[in-house]
Amino acid sequence: xxxxxxxxxxxxxxxxxxxxxxxxxxxxxxxxxxxxxxxxxxxxxxxxxxxxxxxxxxxxxxxxxxxxxxxxxxxxxxxxxxxxxxxxxxxxxxxxxxxxxxxxxxxxxxxxxxxxxxxxxxxxxxxxxxxxxxxxxxxxxxxxxxxxxxxxxxxxxxxxxxxxxxxxxxxxxxxxxxxxxxxxxxxxxxxxxxxxxxxxxxxxxxxxxx
Length: 210
Ligand SMILES: [Zn+2]
Fold this sequence. Notes:
The protein is an alpha+beta fold and about 210 residues long. It has a single domain, classed as Glucose Permease (Domain IIA) (Distorted Sandwich), CATH 2.70.70. About 20% of the residues lie in helices and about 30% in strands. It is globular. The termini are far apart. The mean pLDDT is about 95. The site of zinc ion (ZN) has 4 residues, from loops. InterPro entries: Cell_wall_metabolism_enzyme, Dup_hybrid_motif, M23ase_b-sheet_dom.
């Protein structure tokens, strides 16, 4: 590799657009030694703390699948000027309250409750400080802010809440919006969850639901 390219990669910070967009991609993971220390550290923290795909498969009904595409920074259809900082995991059966949502990581519930954009959301901070944001839930299990959770623990059920005042539902199809954030530098920086989710598909739990 040319020296110029090496220098460019090594000087990237977590906030660089290309790092955030390509986060956890096979290419980035293969070339880790060329990343800056800060970028490599966050990649490693996410790799170590992310254990399970957030939506278990159904052991009862194989038609209850999910699907998602890389929609990083696409424009959203709710209010102007905000782009998509996450991945939408869509439900094949567009019915709220059916698909379970589990924690990707061990961690502490650091945010819980209503957000205009995110609806009923959950924010979990992992042991190494990775922030996982789960939005648009239909309902929660018996969890409270400050609780510790284990990877794979049931958090609630997928829904279509958000885009309005508290309790708004049905403004879009049922899905789980997942966000991944770093707080390492003192500011909140989102990275693209798409490639991490692809890799976590090998670690998908099975739950009994139909
Ligand atoms: Zn989304």
